[in-house]
Design a protein that fits this description.
- With about 160 residues, the chain is mainly alpha-helical.
- The protein has six helices and two strands, in the order H-E-E-H-H-H-H-H.
- It is about 60% helix and about 5% strand.
- Helix 1 crosses helix 2 and helix 3 packs across helix 5.
- The longest helix is centred in the middle third of the chain and has 25 residues.
- A hairpin with a 2-residue loop joins strand 1 and strand 2.
């Protein structure tokens, strides 16, 4: 994540979209705002349905991906469950917000990478050393906030001075 360079998106390579197109009859183009359309007497999915399924799968992937981060903060089953439910509901919106801001916060991705390394290290060391929850939260906020502040400060400096 720290060394990843942005690459061009190819929706036709998306495994979810390929799966849908392979097993579900799909129209070639959109049909207004419809998810399903009838063509030649057959019900067919529109690309809009494929997009909706892809977004829903992405929500679930984001929620599953956040489980280790939640366990770095708490082992309380209610908090783990409710935070993942909130992840399904809200991470997509946050992802699109952050994706649009990635050009402005150029160090955010590196900050998130460091957070993931620290969370992984905390989980590996859990049986040997206990890191208090407040320490984890302070480190996470400091790293993410610090990477955002550093990005803003570096963008304000005149060209050539950094």
């Amino acid at each position: 994540m720290a060394t990843h360079t942005p690459e061009e998106m190819h929706p036709e390579r998306n495994p979810v979209l390929r799966f849908i197109r392979r097993f579900v009859p799909t129209t070639e183009g959109y049909r207004a705002r419809r998810l399903v359309a009838r063509e030649d007497g057959r019900r067919m999915a529109t690309p809009m349905l494929a997009v909706m399924v892809a977004v829903a799968v992405t929500d679930v992937v984001f929620a599953v991906d956040s489980i280790p981060a939640v366990f770095a903060v708490t082992r309380d089953p209610f908090i783990v469950f409710s935070s993942n439910a909130m992840a399904v509901l809200g991470l997509r919106a946050m992802y699109f917000l952050l994706a649009g801001m990635m050009t402005r916060f150029r160090y955010l991705q590196a900050g998130l990478a460091v957070v993931l390394v620290l969370v992984g290290a905390k989980m590996l060391a859990a049986d040997v050393f206990h890191v208090p929850i407040w320490t984890s939260l302070v480190m996470i906020v400091a790293l993410i906030g610090g990477s955002m502040v550093l990005s803003l400060v570096r963008d304000r400096q005149p060209a050539g001075s950094h």
